[in-house]
Amino acid sequence: LAESVVAAACSRVGQRVLHLDRRSYYAANWASFTFNGLLTWIKEQNEEPKPEEVKDWSSLMEEGEELIHLANSDSASITNLLVFSFTSEEEEEAPNTTEEEKAADEDAVKESSETESADSKEEEAGAAEKEDQPAQTEGEEPEADQPLPSSPSNPSEPVRKKISYAQLVKEGRRFNIDLVSKLLFSRGSLIDLLIKSNVSRYAEFKNVTRILTYRHGNVEQVPCSRADVFASRQLSVIEKRKLMRFLTSCMEETEEQAAYNGRPYLEFLRNQQLGESLQHFLLHSIAMVAEDTPTEEGLASTRHFLRCLGRYGNTPFLFPVYGLGEIPQCFCR
Asked: For residue 118, which of 66, 73, 168, 79 has the smallest C-alpha distance?
């Protein structure tokens, strides 16, 4: 992303820019892939790196020119990449799983299975969520292909159709998977840059429709707007009033807030007579800070969340429709 922004800035002031990229895709380790593209990327990452040949280019250099060797350093940041299958055992066809099993077997020989790449977990979890299938896992042990007890289906919903690996590959172009998944606040330096540079014309963004949190074994919707607060069934009438009063009061800095500088944000929330539900929402889903985060930082994060509300939709977050890899690509255009 950084190099793409610099290239766009140079082009904007009249410079001619030449892009040199080792890969056939944008964004390096922040890329977005279709499912088939992801499998190809995994295969490339599992291949043994070839030793770099340092050639002598001195004969091609002219007076005043300096040769700079570009080290392929970012490839070393991805290690111990494992593949897990979330498809159902009864619908899974043997010929279709050989690619994943082979990749998993190769990794098992290369590395111990105790540590896993956080990237691969996010990618495969994203694939499972986007295809709305039961979360199942396939590890090194053959008996690990059992449904996880932590992901029961909601009894109020119809039974979800199980999907096979062949179907996942066939439908793999219907969704994208980010290697690193992040959301954009609707206000901030990146959004301002996208608008000012007209790069936003090349991309399509979608407002995240709702924010969920996991609490006491249940997935609950976090009330963001005033309408959400009053429509929430998880909060009592008293809690709704307390939440609205707190969100209104925290937008301005007061002496009471300054008295808690350096003290944990959770302590400040408790002393505001907020219940456990409101503390959880404010700490983990609105401010998105740790329990021991200083109060001034927690309040700053809460204010930023509230300032971003309503600019483009019901939540403060935007996401590129075709994945975060689109942003560097748009700057390159």
From this structure: 79
